[in-house]
């Protein structure tokens, strides 16, 4: 069976941020792709189109398409799957994705001085709007609870958080599984535990970690 993994980076980042994770999945026998999208200059609809076009050109045909997406990338993955239900089946794993909207992004969007930092990624994206209520594939969320990140510089987050995203922002009723890991938002991208859990979900349909 032909299986590939699509990796999507988050806000302010570049596909190179997913490079280490790509190497780990490649070592496990999976072909991977990490397409370019512009998280600040493009709105969510434009980025979904760019990602879908990359999938058509570089991934298809394939029997199973798995998606591992960090932060904003998870929102775009959900929107793409909603717009294109014809995509091959597979698992979706989101890493620290604020599916209920991001308090930190909301603060940045509120002030004209800081608004350029999130660009066009807020509306129908980090505001938590425009996401499907149901999903026709297995979806697992890995969330962190180590509060190290820019959230401290932007007023802090009162609840349990990963330094950028509050734990409460990562829950969605369409999720198959949700696991909390002792990681910060950025450290998820370089964690062997995250790779282990992603592979477990892809291969078995469930995470191996127990909260």
UniProtKB/TrEMBL annotation:
Q: Which InterPro entries does the annotation name?
A: AB_hydrolase_1, AB_hydrolase_fold
Q: What Pfam families would the database entry show? A: Abhydrolase_6
Q: Could you tell me the superkingdom of the organism this chain comes from?
A: Bacteria
**Domain AB hydrolase-1: residue ranges:** 5-116
What name does the UniProt record give this protein?
Pimeloyl-ACP methyl ester carboxylesterase
The organism is Thiothrix eikelboomii
């Amino acid at each position: 069976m032909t299986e590939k993994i699509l990796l999507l980076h988050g806000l302010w980042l570049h596909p190179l941020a997913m490079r280490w994770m790509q190497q780990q999945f490649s070592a496990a026998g999976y072909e991977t792709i990490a397409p370019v999208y512009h998280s600040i200059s493009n709105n969510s609809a434009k980025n979904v189109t760019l990602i879908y076009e990359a999938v058509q050109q570089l991934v298809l045909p394939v029997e199973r398409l798995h998606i591992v997406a960090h932060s904003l990338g998870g929102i775009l993955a959900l929107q793409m799957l909603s717009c294109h239900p014809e995509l091959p089946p597979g698992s979706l794993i989101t890493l620290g994705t604020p599916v209920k909207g991001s308090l930190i992004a909301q603060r940045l969007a509120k002030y004209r001085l800081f608004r350029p930092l999130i660009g066009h990624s807020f509306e129908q994206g980090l505001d938590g709007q425009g996401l499907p209520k149901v999903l026709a594939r297995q979806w697992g969320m890995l969330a962190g609870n180590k509060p190290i990140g820019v959230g401290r510089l932007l007023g802090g987050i009162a609840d349990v958080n990963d330094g950028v995203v509050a734990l409460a922002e990562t829950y969605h009723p369409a999720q198959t599984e949700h696991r909390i890991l002792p990681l910060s938002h950025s450290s998820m991208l370089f964690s062997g535990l995250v790779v282990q859990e992603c592979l477990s979900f892809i291969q078995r349909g469930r995470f191996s970690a127990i909260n």
